[in-house]
Amino acid sequence: MLVGLEQSTNSSQLQEFQFPAKTVLVPGDEKKGIPSDVLQMLDFCVEIPQFGLVRSLNVHVSSSILLWEYTRQSLRHGRIRSTLD
To answer: Are 10 and 45 within 8 A, CB to CB?
Structure first.
């Protein structure tokens, strides 16, 4: 599944989204986001909730948060194992 990191009318909040086991994460451009032709190809859009005066996070910080949540869910569901065990 293609999962984009983008604020859109159909995006899910990150804390409520369940990642499919096989996921390709698609971050957007730093200033312009994900182009509309690419948005049409995505299966899902996910956004990171923000509070206060923050308008957006930069793409590498946002991607890191998204990747961590995917990893956390994969660990919880036993799709991957921690090397710390």
So the answer is: yes
- What pLDDT digit, counting tens, does each position of 39-78 carry? 999 999 999 988 877 667 789 999 999 999 999 999 999 8
Residue 54 structure tokens: 């923050």
29, β-bridge pairs: 33
pTM for this one? Answer: 0.85
CB atoms within 10 A of CB 25: 16
CATH number for the domain formed by residue range(s) 2-76: 3.40.1280.10
36 burial (CB, 10 Å; 0-12 / 13-18 / 19+) is exposed
